[in-house]
Automatic annotation (TrEMBL):
The chain crosses the membrane at residues 292-311. CDD domains: GGDEF. It catalyses: 2 GTP = 3',3'-c-di-GMP + 2 diphosphate. Residues 312-366 form the HAMP domain. NCBIfam families: GGDEF. Keywords: Cell membrane, Coiled coil, Membrane, Transmembrane, Transmembrane helix. It comes from Rubrivivax benzoatilyticus. It is a multi-pass membrane protein. The keyword tRNA-binding does not apply. Gene3D superfamilies: 3.30.70.270, 6.10.340.10, PAS domain (3.30.450.20). The keyword Membrane applies. Residues 372-399 form a coiled coil. The lineage of its organism: Bacteria, Pseudomonadati, Pseudomonadota, Betaproteobacteria, Burkholderiales. This is diguanylate cyclase. It is found in: Cell membrane.
Amino acid sequence: MSPRAWGSFRLRLTLGAGGLALCTLLGVGLYAARLATQERQNFVGLQLLGAARSAAIGLATRLQEREREVEILSRVPSLAESPLDSERVARSLALRKETNTEYAWMGVASLDGRVVNATGGLLVGADVRTRPWFAAGLKGSYTGDVHQAALLATLLEPRPGGEPLRFIDLAAPVIGPAGQVRGVLAAHVHWDWIANAVRKAVREDPRATDTEVIILGRDGTVLYPLRAPGTRLPQALGRERFGMQEEPGGASYLVARASVPVTQHSDLGWSVVLRQPSAAATAPVAQLRDRLFAIGLATSLLVAALAYVLAARVSRPLERLVTAVMSVREGRGGQANFPRDGGSPELSALSDAVREMTETLLDREARLAQANAHLEQTVAERTCQLSQANEELARLAAQDALTGLANRRAFEQRAAEEEARCRRSGTGFGLLLLDIDHFKDVNDRFGHATGDQVLQQIARLLESATRETDLVARLGGEEFAVLLPELGESADTLRVAEKIRQAIQAAHFGPVGEVTVSVGCAKGDGNDTPVQLALRRADEALYKAKQAGRNRCVAADDLTAA
Ligand SMILES: Nc1nc2c(ncn2[C@@H]2O[C@H](COP(=O)(O)OP(=O)(O)OP(=O)(O)O)[C@@H](O)[C@H]2O)c(=O)[nH]1
């Protein structure tokens, strides 16, 4: 494996471990964040619902206080006993209005439906018979729903921003000393006071920070803050409930709705709705999620770093192991450096196993090489011996056992070579055939062993009488042949034959004494006279020599006896 491949291995392991850790942590983080978000929504929703209930109860309490106030004022002596249009009644009304700024107007209407006294003298003389509070106030205490100012709209100072004046009407009958109804006491309470009371209650509740306050009417329309008539919340939400709501623009809110309790004299059906942007509601969870992501990222980087260290710890010994194995493969086994510390018990065991296996293989290889060398040496020796034996065999095959001269086979082979040479060079060769005279008598008289000695001695004489380049052979029995290369002239052949004959005749053969030979001579040239023809002619010449009385040389070409 190349260094690049090892680098890739480390990188893949690092990315894989880091990615796995990141995915796992992100998955767990997202799941935990989702659970936490749900829990947080429930928790904040319950808090909002609690705050809405508190605000609704506070609103009902304040409203009830105003109802009680109007009811009590309607029974004070100044109203019960004094003429309704008297100064005394006017002072009582003014005093009460100054004490409680939430009242926009207080006045008294006579039984015929005319305002006879009022704070600031407003609406005095006005006909209020069609006003709901008047009819209801004649019968008992009354609290009316919020409405825009009708008669007072032009008499009171307009609100900043041009927002219309809105009131809640409270009314109670004015009872005379005899218990008879004398008129109706009415009070217009600023709607702002109601809304401020709810807002204040919510603001004071630490559970409802970043919270929007909404007051709904009985039919679900928005009474506060000011909206177009009939405006409702995007989705209906049950009373005493909380949940998620989405505005058409996409904004998401956590909403809680609580009913305003019934007061002594009213059941207005209002609800206090508190809503908080879901992002604000779940902000702590988002922070927790971001922290979890940051921790997950940091942990993933740490895991990736650890994976890289681990991969390097695993791959480095493997790299060294591979390098060592490559050295062995390239025949540098002696230089192979197997890692001792494999980084882990398994790798150490692997390295040791490969090292031991390599040492065993190298040892076997060395022994095999040694055995091969020894075998080669043995083969060379055996080959040499075989060659020598073959040479000896060849020599023996070409040699006459008794005399050590060339035998007939060797003679014929050499004669054939000489014949071929003569064909190339154009020169001739001489051929002598010798036969011992009366050799049978030698054997018969002196024994076969003596005959052998005679044959051996003649062989030596033939060798000494001829040149190194000549070939002396024993063709069989007591017959010898001499091949004389490059002696084309018959005279030369005959001269050699005669020299031989005389040397033999002159020699002394132990108990035998004198031995003579007859010689037939012929010449050959390889073309017209091949060896076989020369032999035949020499044999004929020898025959003639024998016929002529033996101990002589006869040449085949001219049959001249020497
Ligand atoms: N001792 C011995 N005698 C041999 C050998 N080979 C042949 N002879 C003998 O040589 C003799 C040859 O005799 P012959 O063929 O009658 O010829 P010869 O007696 O020499 O008479 P001519 O040739 O006519 O002069 C035989 O008696 C053979 O036994 C040999 O190797 N050793």
